[in-house]
């Protein structure tokens, strides 16, 4: 049976500083991208107006998010297929060194995909074209985030931080937008 991976020795304050810097860089990439997409794309493209078409739009965008999960599943399956240590499955032991990063990538991608997919579907219920344009930018940023998360994983938390923040920030924005829209709707109902 394989021994679990020992975490590398980490200078925690240095690593925390790297995480903060990378998260701020991700914010500097995400914020203008989301704003420019929300304001600019509706000037170039016509987005659906009817709720059923808006939800269909979001579900199709979710397909791109799901493809990242498929990639993670494929990475894990490829290692399991070729590794005697991992072939029996996770129920029979911890992952080998070869499997540890693909497995961690898959787990994190599943978590982020769920959060992002729910946010995009909810955002599709908010009126106006800007919300759907935001979904387009979210898909692009999710993809950038997943690629940089995977690439940076071996370099520790500081190496993963840009990718995780670039993946998560658009979803946080979508949740905030929907919650503000819900509060606005409730305020209108309260005045009736």
UniProtKB/TrEMBL annotation:
The chain crosses the membrane at residues 23-45, 57-77, 131-149, 161-180. GO terms for cellular component: lysosomal membrane; ribosome. The keyword Lipid metabolism does not apply. Signal peptide: none annotated. It comes from the Bacteria. InterPro entries: MAPEG-like_dom_sf (IPR023352). Keywords: Membrane, Plasmid, Ribonucleoprotein, Ribosomal protein, Transmembrane, Transmembrane helix. GO terms for biological process: regulated exocytosis. This is Ribosomal protein L11.
